[in-house]
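**User:**
Everyone, produce one record:

**Assistant:**
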Amino acid sequence: MSSPCDPEYAPVGDVGAALMMIDSRLKAIYDSKTENDPEQQQMVDQFAASFGPAGFNALLDGACTLIYMFMQWLRAACEDHDKDVIEYMVPTLVATMRMMPKTFRPETIPTMAGLLIAAGTGLSPNLWRAQYGGWTDAEMNPLEATAVLLAERINQITGDHDFATRLITEALSQSARD
C-alpha cells in the first residue's frame, strides 16, 4: 500500500544548492582555519537569502532530499552488517543534537529525529514534516545541521571527507544521464 509520504510524491527541490551549503559546512568542520569564520557564515547566509521565497522552499526540499538520500545510503550500509539504521543511527545523532543546544533547541530535536526516522523507513522527510504544518524559523538551522551530521557520519564511516558530497554528485550526474 502506498503512503501519502512516499518519496515518489515528494518534490526533490534544489539538491544542488542544498549540497553546496552542506559541503561548505563540512569543509568548515574539517578545516580548522575556516571553522566559525564570520566571512564564511556571511557568504552562506547571503547565498540562502538570494533565493527568494520559492527558491528558499526548493532549498528546504533539497535539504530533505539529501537527508533521505543519506539515510538510504546508511540504511544499505547498516543492512550489509545486519544492523537496523534506526537503531544504529538515530540514538547517536539525537545524542549529538542534545550536545549542541545552540543549534538544536530541545523542542526541535523530536522533529529532526522524526525526519531521520521517516527517511530511514523509506518515507519522504519533507512530506512527513508537511503533515504537521509549515517549517518554523526555529527549525531552519536544525534542518541544515541534521543534513550536515548525516553527511559527516557517512564521511566518518567511509574514512573519506568528501564521500557524502561525491555520493550525491554522482547520483545527480547519473540522474541527468538517465
Observations:
- The chain has eight helices and no strands.
- The two ends are 27 Å apart (CA to CA).
- The mean pLDDT is 89.
- Helices lie at 15-30, 38-49, 52-80, 85-98, 109-120, 125-130, 140-158, 163-177.
